[in-house]
Design a protein that fits this description.
- 4 copies of one chain form a homotetramer.
- Chain A is α+β, with helices and mostly antiparallel strands.
- The first copy, chain A, has one domain: Chorismate synthase AroC (Chorismate synthase, AroC fold).
- Chain A is about 25% helix and about 20% strand.
- In chain A, the strands form 6 sheets. In chain A, strands 1-2-3-7-4 form a 5-stranded antiparallel sheet, covered by helices on one side. The first copy, chain A, has a 5-stranded antiparallel sheet with strand order 9-8-10-16-11. Chain A has a two-stranded antiparallel sheet with strand order 5-6.
- The longest helix of chain A has 21 residues.
- Chains in contact: A-B, A-C, A-D, B-C, B-D, C-D.
Amino acid sequence: MASAFGEHLRVSVYGESHGNGIGALVEGLPAGFPVDTDALMQFMQRRQGGNNALSTSRKEPDIPEFVSGVTEGRTNGFPLCITIKNTNTRSGDYSELRDKPRPSHADYPAFVKWGGMADMRGGGHFSGRLTAPVCAAGGIAKQILASKNIFVGAHIARIAGIADEAFPLQPDAALFDEIAAKAFPVISDAAGEKMQAAILDARSAGDSVGGVITCCVTGMPAGLGDPMFDGMENRLARVLFGIPAVKGVEFGDGFALADMRGSAANDPYCVDAAGNIATKTNRNGGILGGITTGMPIVFSAAIKPTPSIAAKQDTVSLSAMQPAELEIHGRHDPCITQRAVPVIEAAAALVMLDMLLSRTEDHI
Amino acid sequence: MASAFGEHLRVSVYGESHGNGIGALVEGLPAGFPVDTDALMQFMQRRQGGNNALSTSRKEPDIPEFVSGVTEGRTNGFPLCITIKNTNTRSGDYSELRDKPRPSHADYPAFVKWGGMADMRGGGHFSGRLTAPVCAAGGIAKQILASKNIFVGAHIARIAGIADEAFPLQPDAALFDEIAAKAFPVISDAAGEKMQAAILDARSAGDSVGGVITCCVTGMPAGLGDPMFDGMENRLARVLFGIPAVKGVEFGDGFALADMRGSAANDPYCVDAAGNIATKTNRNGGILGGITTGMPIVFSAAIKPTPSIAAKQDTVSLSAMQPAELEIHGRHDPCITQRAVPVIEAAAALVMLDMLLSRTEDHI
Amino acid sequence: MASAFGEHLRVSVYGESHGNGIGALVEGLPAGFPVDTDALMQFMQRRQGGNNALSTSRKEPDIPEFVSGVTEGRTNGFPLCITIKNTNTRSGDYSELRDKPRPSHADYPAFVKWGGMADMRGGGHFSGRLTAPVCAAGGIAKQILASKNIFVGAHIARIAGIADEAFPLQPDAALFDEIAAKAFPVISDAAGEKMQAAILDARSAGDSVGGVITCCVTGMPAGLGDPMFDGMENRLARVLFGIPAVKGVEFGDGFALADMRGSAANDPYCVDAAGNIATKTNRNGGILGGITTGMPIVFSAAIKPTPSIAAKQDTVSLSAMQPAELEIHGRHDPCITQRAVPVIEAAAALVMLDMLLSRTEDHI
Amino acid sequence: MASAFGEHLRVSVYGESHGNGIGALVEGLPAGFPVDTDALMQFMQRRQGGNNALSTSRKEPDIPEFVSGVTEGRTNGFPLCITIKNTNTRSGDYSELRDKPRPSHADYPAFVKWGGMADMRGGGHFSGRLTAPVCAAGGIAKQILASKNIFVGAHIARIAGIADEAFPLQPDAALFDEIAAKAFPVISDAAGEKMQAAILDARSAGDSVGGVITCCVTGMPAGLGDPMFDGMENRLARVLFGIPAVKGVEFGDGFALADMRGSAANDPYCVDAAGNIATKTNRNGGILGGITTGMPIVFSAAIKPTPSIAAKQDTVSLSAMQPAELEIHGRHDPCITQRAVPVIEAAAALVMLDMLLSRTEDHI
C-alpha cells in the first residue's frame, strides 16, 4: 500500500518534488461537510514556514485544488482528489546526485530498490514537500474533528537539548490556537528564543539540528482502538514514521517510563468534576492496551537533523563503486522541526477521524 | 484487523488468559520448510523466564500444537494454526477486578469498548500470555530467516537507568546466540547483575521496573520497504506497539538523534572490504526513507514497568462511579523486560520475513 | 490474504482434509451475543447431508470447539477460534494421485504453485470439507442477523436442467425455515424429486451433476455497500467464488438481464403498504450501484458437477511428463449442490454481518 | 476501500460525472516502463465508441494527464496519478432527478447512504464515465503485460439473444488485435450486424439492450492465485462487479457447467506439442481451485440493458414520499455493451498484472 493509510478514511499521497504536481486522494470522508478553504490555506501555510532565516528559500504557494469529492464547497461522499501543482522546480544540478547518494537521505536505498529508475530529483517522492498533501487532507480532518469538539495541537518540545514547557494535563483548544498562531510554535516563548538561537548557530556553522514534537488530542471518547496490532498507538506510529525524518515515536512519557517504577508510572483513576472517570496523571498518554481511556492522547516524535548540510561529506560513486566526496549546494532548512509541527497535527487528525469512522458495534 | 498483521505473511493472534487456549494463525509461509520443533520449544522457553525471583510463579508449559499447516514436519503451504492450551488458570479472585479497573492496565478502556462483556480475567486478550503465540510464529520465522543467513538478536539495553553495552556496528550470529543463552539477556554480565539487583530492589518494595530492549537484524538486503507509510519503520512500529507494555519505539539512535547536529547524525557511505556499499556509522538503524540500506536494522523499544504492584492504588468503582481503592493480590513479575526480549525478536523476525515475501518486481 | 475475507468481521479458514483439524478464526464479532450451539450444530448438519444415496459415505461428526472468543456461552469481543477435529481420514491410496492430477480438481495448479510440497491428500486445503468452518462461522452470523430481523435462505434453483419454483418477491423467514428443514432443499418437492432422480441417474452411470443455488436475504436496510469495487455485489462475489465448485455468480436476474430490454429489466419504484420506498419487481436483486435498495438481496451461484467421477479419465504423469490414465476410486458425491446450500447461506450471512458492522458515518 | 482494488498494484478511481475531473491513482507499477501514450489514447478511444447511432452524443476527448508517476515517458516507481478533465458537463436539468430516482440507477440507494449529499448529477461517481480512468490504468497494464507476452482480448459474446462465435481454445494476439480494430468488437461480423440491427431496433423503440462480453487472457503462467477467497476468480469477480451494469460473472463455461455432467465438464490433461502440460478442453476457464492452470483464462460478464430509456417510468418523489412518474430526457446509449468491451479488458489486465506483481516465494 506504501504511500497510503487508513481503514475507513483512506489517505493516499502521490507526487514527486520535481514532477508536475503532488497531492492526496482521500476516500471515506462523510458527505455534506462544508470545507473552510480559508482556514485550510492558513493551516497549510504553517507548514511552509515564514520568510525567515530558519527556513529554506523555496516558497511555492501550495494551493490545493479539489479535482473531485467536493461539490459547492461541501464534501460529496466520493473520493476527494487534491492536487497541488509544482511551480518552482529547478533540477539543473541533479546529475551529480544521481551518482553520489547523499548521506542519510533515501537516495541510496531508492537507487537499489528501483534500479536507478526512480525520479529522485529534489528527493522525489521522499521529499518533505510530500507533507503538503498530508496537511491538506489533515487540515480537512481537523475541521471535521473540531465540529465534534475534538481538538489537535502540537508544539516543539525540544530542540538542541532545549526543552519547552509541557502541555498541561487537560489543554484546551485556546492553547492550541495560541501556539498555532506563533511563527515558532512553542508554549514558552523564552524557550523558543533559545531554540531559534541554537538553530541559527547551527546554520552559521553550515550544520543542522533536529528536535522533538509533542502532540495532544483532546475530546476523543474512551473505548476507541482495537487490541494488539490495530490499537491507537499502532495506527498513529505507522503513520508518524511516514513523515520524513521521524526516527522515534513514544506515547505519554514513553522512554522515560522505562526508567520509572510502577508506583510512579501508573495513572490512578478518579471521578472528575463532571462525574466522569478520569486519571489523575496521564503518563500513559490516554491509551491503555491500545484503546483510548478518554484522557487526552499525548505522543511525541523525534525528528532527526536535516541531512542536507553544507560540509563536505563522504559518500560513494555508484557508477565507479569507489569512495567519493559530496558537497550539497543550495540553501537548506537548518531545522525542519518547526515546519513539521502542523504535519504531525495533520497526521494525528487523520488517524483520529479514521478511528471515529471505523467505530463499529463492539457489543450487543 | 486488530489482532493480526502482515502483508504476505499474515499473523493473527487469538485467545484469552483464562480461556481454553491461545494461539496464532499464520498465513503465507512458504511450503516445504522443515520446522525444528526442539529449537522452537527452546526459543519459546526464553519467554517463560527461569524459575527465579525475577519472574512470576505461574509456569504453564507452552506447548504449541500445529492444528494445520504442517505435514510430516514441513510447512505445507496452507494456513498454519498453532494452538497452546491454557492449563494453569485460576480465576477465583476476579470479581473485585470486574468492578475496579487496575491502573495502567487495559481493564477500563476494555470495559467501555465492550460494554463489560469482554473476558478480562487475567487480562484476557491483553494478557502478556498472548505473546506466547507471537513467539511460536516468530520462532518459525527466525528459522526460515536463518536459512537465508538473516539473523535476529536482542538484548536488554537498560533497566532502572543502568545501561548495557551497545551492539557492535556489525554483530554476528554468535553474539546473538551467546546473549540468547543467558538467563538474563545482556551483553555485559556486569551491567546485567546491577540490573537484576535493581529488579530485586523494586520487588522487595512491592514495586516494579521497566526497561529498554534493543534489537538488531543482520543480513537483510538493501532496497526493502515501501515509501511513506509502509516502510520498514512503519511496519515494525505497528507490530512492536502491539506487544503489551511497549510505549516507545525508535530506530537507530532515535530520540538521541533529535539532539544531534546533522554533521554528527549523518551516516557517511563507504565501500566495505567485500566491495559492497556500507555506511561508516549506523545512527539511522539501517533504514532511510523507510527502505533498508543493507546495514543491520537496529531499533529499540521502551517497556513500561509492570502495572501490577503490591501497593494499594486509587481507582474507581464502575458500578458506584465512586473513588475506590484496589490492592492487587497474587505474585507478579517485578520486571517483564527480560521476558520481552524474545518477543521483540519474534516480532522483528515476522516483519522481516513478511518483507522478504512481499518483495515484488520494483523495476522493469 | 488468501483464505480470509471481511472488513470488520474477518473470517480466516484453515486446515486440510487429512490433517489434524480444520477451523476458522473469526475476528470482529460484537461481544455479548449468546451463541445457540444446538442451533449451530443443526445448521452445520445440513451441510453434511443425510445418510442417503445422494451423498458420500464419509461422515465425520463436525463438532466445532471454541478455543477462544466465547466465555460462558457468549461472544467475548475477542477473536473466536473454532476448531473441528479431523477424525475419519484415510489416506492410504494417495500415492497415485500425487503423480497424476485429477482433471478439474486443484491438484495440478497446486502442484505448480507449491512445488509439490502442498498437502493435497483428499484435496487438502481445497477440499469441500473446508466449508464446514465456513458454516460454523456463518451459522453464528445467521443467529446474530436473525436477532436483528435479517434472514438468509437458499434453495436449489436448478439441477440437470430441472428448475425449482422461484422465491416470491418478499419471502418470509418461515419459508426459509421450511426449505431448510427438508433433506433436499427446494421450494417445490415435485421439482425436487425429479432432481433427485437425475442425481441418482448420474450416480448409476458413475457420473455426477452440478446445479444452481439461489439465495435471498431479507431485512437488510437500504444504503449499505460502497461504490465501485466494494459494493455488496463485489463483496459477495469475492466470497462466493471461494466456495469450491462455484463457477458463476449473478445478482437478481443476472445473465437473463443481458437478453432483456431496459423497459423489461428496470425495477420501477413504488411506496409500499408500510409507507416505505420499494420496487415493484426485483430484477436487480436488491442492489444498485453496489448499494442495497432495501429490497431482498437475491443472487445465484453456479455449481459445477463433482469432478470426481468413476470413469477412467485422461491425465498426465507429472514425474514422466507423459499422458496417463486415472481411475478415481472410493465413493464420491454424485452431486454436492444440495450440501452447498447451507454453505452459500453461511457465506451470505458473513458478508451481511460484515456489511452491517462496517457501516460508518456516511454523511454529516 | 470502496473505489479501489489490488494487492501490489493498487488502483483507486476518483471523480464525478459533472465535477472538475475524473482519474485514477495507480500504486505499485514497476519503475522504468516506457508508456506508449499513443497506444494508450487509441485504447481509450475504443471505450468512447464511434460517432454513430449506437452511442450517446456526449463526446469528451478523454485525455489522461500524468500528474505524477511518470518521468520522461517512463514510470518512475512512485504512485501514478492520472487526471482526465471533465469538459462537457451540462447539469441544467438535474433538479427533477434529485427528487425522483431513476429506476435501476444508483440514485435511490445513494440518496439513502449519503443523506442526499452525494453529487449524483449525471450519475456522479457511479457514471459510466468513471470507466475512462479504469481504461487509462488498464491500458498501461496491457502494455506491460504485452512486454511479457501476456495478451488480453474480449468480444461481445451476445446481444439480444444473438450469439457471436466463440474464442478458439488458444486465441492468439492477432485475433485480439483484429477484434479490437473493429468499431463493433465481435469475431463474426455477420453476427455483429444482426446485433447492431437489434440495438437500433431497441433505440427506435426508445428502449435499450444489454449483452454478454467474453474475455480471454493468454500467456499467464500456471500456479498463480491464492486459495479460497483470493484466487484468480475471486479477484476478477470483485473488480468486474465494479464496472457499472455488470450483473453476472462466470468463468469458463460458468452457468452452463451447472447443467452438464462431470464427464462432460471435466478438462482432461494432455502434454502439448511444446511438451507442456495442457488441457484438451478449457471448460473451467484456465482456473482450478482459484489458481491458474496455464490455459487461457476465460470469463464472461453479463451487462444489463442501459437503465436510461425514453419511456415514462414509475418512480417516487423522495420529498413527497408519493408515487411519481419520470421521463428521462436527453440522448442515451441504447446499448453500452460494445463500449464496455475495452473496460472489461482493462479490468482484466489490471488484475493480471497485480497477480504477477504479488507473486511470492510459495515454496522453499
